[in-house]
Amino acid sequence: MTRVLVVDDESQNRYLLEVLLGGEGYEVESASNGREALAAARRRAPELVISDILMPEMDGFLLCRAMKADATLRNVPFVFYTATYTEAEDERVALEAGGDLFLRKPTEPDTLLAAIRRLLEERIPVSDEGPTRGLAEEVAFLARHDQALARKLEKKHHELQESEARYRSYFRSSPVAILVTDDTGRLLDANPAAGLLSGRDAVELLGANVSLLLGEGGDDSPLRLAAGAPSAPSRTTAWRLRRKDGALRHVSLTAIRLEDGRVLAFCEDDTERVRAEEAVRQVNADLERRVRERTAQLEHLNAELEAFTSSVSHDLRAPLRALDGYAAMLEEEAERLDEVGRRHLGAIRRNVRRMSELVESLLSLSRAGRQPLRTGPIDMERLARSVLDELLVPGERERTEVVFRPLPAAVGDESLVRQVLANLVGNALKFSARKDRRRLEIGARNEGGRTFWFVSDDGMGFEPAQAERIFRIFERLPGAEDIEGTGVGLAVVRRIVERHGGVVRAEGRPGAGATISFSLGEGAG
Known about the structure:
The chain has helices at 11-23, 34-43, 60-68, 88-96, 109-122, 135-173, 192-198, 202-205, 221-226, 271-332, 339-370, 380-391, 394-397, 414-431, 489-499; strands at 3-7, 27-31, 48-51, 78-82, 101-104, 177-181, 187-190, 235-242, 248-257, 263-269, 375-378, 400-404, 410-413, 438-447, 450-457, 504-508, 514-518. With 525 residues, it is α/β, with parallel strands linked by helices. Helix 11 (339-370) runs parallel beside helix 15 (489-499), helix 12 packs across helix 14 (414-431) and helix 14 packs antiparallel against helix 15.
């Protein structure tokens, strides 16, 4: 098995090469600098060396030079693999040091492996005596080595200066306040945004303890807790910062502990957001209070309505029944009355019946709004046929054609939906009663994924502009004044349908009949 020595001061670089070469069947040993690698090679000579150049203690140039001067190691192929020394002059120095191959990082894995295989196959052993190096040649090489090193140091210095300039630019122009402290909490640096946030200038901040920003009795424990160990994930905590003028600011503090123990803290002013959230909480609390108050008022009004309904049910219907009873008694002695008296007596009884119907209609409207919903599946066809059988008296069946269209099931309160169908079928029969033969249609249609049940007639109809008016309580359309009814039935229909989350609508034309359709909310078909 071919043994390869990998030399690099970066552990991640060593690991990547170890995995790549190990996967190809090579035996891999690693070293973190030139001196360590030279000792390992002398203990057990490798068959290939892959080395970085810029390393502590002994760089790659000197490692290669030392191995090529060693009789036991001069035949080992030496590959320079670098991301720092990448210029043509650097490659020339590497080859003069005795290197066999010069590669720049990063190189594609397949390309790297192919170059290694080719180098191992084509290597040519050199004489055991090795090259004779004169003092002048050695001095010249060391001079070129030093020049290459100086170029790299100068380049690194320039890059560091640029990096420092960029950092300073970001640091000073950042809208977020940035603080730098040591591990005792002493402020080492602060950007202009930190001065704006705290109301203090740099002279006041630098050298002071961060507790200065927390006011009387404050400490820097939130900052200490936010900054974990070096390389630990940063955490954001809420911090209360007190300005020089005493004003309190709410801050989101994200702190990072650096390798040298300093803490880098980013302070974002959240005061307006916190105030907005508090305002929303206050509004919600006020809204909840008002809802409770309105609920209490509604409960009180419902109790009064219940009392009124009870009064209507008992106190109004009782005298009506008595009045109708006395009128009936008088009717039994009608022979004692003249024609005018009998006519007046008939008017009394008709108005008593109308008053009773009106009371019943009002009670029905009240119950429709107050009765708790007991929802469940409803067989709409069975319900519609049952309602029709109750309302279409035997004497009317012969002249009435009823067409049933498919009626899908619904979900709702069956007793209330029955009331809807009874009112709609009753209206259809009533407003088509003048015709010798009449036609009713009961069915359903789908509109946009929603089911609408309908009842149609071919009776007197109405003007389309009056479609909304017919659902108002006590409203009677022009031409319908002499038709029996209280003007409450369709108002009851609307109340029940809307309680189910549905809608009700009317379509019609004068003399061409009317269609009333309704839905029962999302779960109703």
